[in-house]
Amino acid sequence: MTDRAPQPLTAAANPPVQPLESNLLPSDVVRVSATKDVPKPDRQLTEVAKLIDVSKCIGCKACQSACIEWNDTHPTVEENVGVYENPHDLTPDMFTLMRFTEYENPETNELEWLIRKDGCMHCEDPGCLKACPAPGAIVQYSNGIVDFIHENCIGCGYCVTGCPFDIPRISKTDHKSYKCTLCSDRVAMGQGPACAKACPTQCITFGPKEEMKKHAEERIEDLKSRGFEHAGLYDPQGVGGTHVMYVLHHADKPSLYAGLPDEPAISPLVREWKGPAKTVGLAAIGLAAVGAALHGLFGRALEVTEHEEEEAQELVDETTPGAPADKGDA
Amino acid sequence: MARRKFSAPGDEIETRHPVIVNRYRGFTRVNHWITAACMIVLLLSGFSLFHPDLFFLTKLFGGGQNTRWLHPIVGVVLFFSFVGLFVQMWRLNLPRKEDVEWTANLPELVLKGDESKMPELGKYNAGQKVVFWGMSVMIVVLIVSGVMIWEQFFPKLVPIPVRRIAVAVHAFAAFAVILIFIMHVYAAFWARGTISAMTRGTVTGGWAFKHHRKWLRELAGRSDGGSAK
Prior knowledge:
- Chain A: [4Fe-4S] cluster 3 binds at residues 120, 123, 128, 163.
- The structure holds two protein chains of two kinds.
- Chain A is of the alpha+beta class.
- Chain A is built from nine helices and eleven strands.
- Chain A has helices at 62-71, 127-131, 158-162, 184-187, 194-198, 209-225, 268-274, 276-298, 306-319, and strands at 29-32, 48-53, 97-105, 110-118, 138-141, 146-148, 169-170, 177-178, 204-208, 232-234, 244-248.
- Chain B has a domain at 27-89 and 125-191: Fumarate Reductase Cytochrome B subunit (Up-down Bundle), CATH 1.20.950.20.
């Protein structure tokens, strides 16, 4: 019997040379869309995270290329419209995208070129999963990875409605939703995500979430010593923390970075819509149907009596103008 | 020809002995049943996406993907079909003062089946008017909010925050429509002799006398009110 792959500890981990079995099992799932009572997994995987230190990013897009190559997607070649983003946005074939912002810092009067690698944040409390109506189309593993199971996806776009980061994209060809998988298939085999492995500046790192947080601390300290007093970690608690985190030089203003949400959370509307309101609504409908049925069984039906038929006959006979009516049958 | 006040074109006394009254023309009936069929498909497919416990209903339509594209298309068909009904029925559904009296006496009717205190009515009573206007308003709300969340054809129509409102409004309006639908179907069954108005197109004189006497009176008083047959 072959061994299970180790849990990945770094982005640079090389692929194993001997055959190994997947270490990300269906039984490692902790949340499943549109499914109550997911059985508790018999083991807890180490929580992983990808850390993106935007201060080290040089905008080379090697991560995008690695993502395309590993996931075998084929983004369409688009037109250059004079911006650095390429393609223009996340697409069903582009799971990660460098977003470029030119920021004139009013305090220093300097122009800052802020580059952020956009993509799925792998929320601890995923809005996409909450909104999804298709059982099993979105799952969350105990290591924190949120993954779309495409054979169960119906293409309704509710994940788009639920996501606080505007990440999922629905394919126009197969009508299924796509986003970054955190390379769940690589992680299953003990390797870090393709983007992290390709990153030439180690702006993208990967490993156990606790270690990534420690690494971020060092980076933040360094940034602060260089004058970025608001440097900090972006691990938003509104969504329970994320398994993709940023080190930002302006952590007090995340929205500077191409609209990264300042305080992301699942919209209260989505929570209400997907929350107890559904059950209350269904119960009310059931009650109305049962009430009608009971009234039908025990109430008095409005029967037309013989007497009323006679009165109608009288009324018609009396009021009809110009009596020679129809074929003498009156 | 006198102007119609309580009846619609096509309403006429079909035979005088026994009194049989034509309530809905063939066109209106076909229009109604197309709407009804769409409504049932929409209820089942909508329910399947409304609650995970009802997701199994997608099997009726050949799976989740099929349900996802079918639901909005049938919704558009229903909308236009309902517009047909609206154009034919809105005038006689305008509120009138006898609706107040009818509503005041409604508890007697529902609890005891006692219709004796009810005023004489035209083609529709206040309950039917509530169904009509309730459906009219909610169907507009549903088509507008539905297009906003129609991922396949209008993915970028509204920003995501608006989509979140639309999706909640859509579910709420559907909930209201279902309650109105239950009321409508049950009332048609409860008031015996009603369903034939939408199947054969006719009701008995006694039915018209009992429930919509002003309507019957007007038809009886018209010189075309049942001529020729």
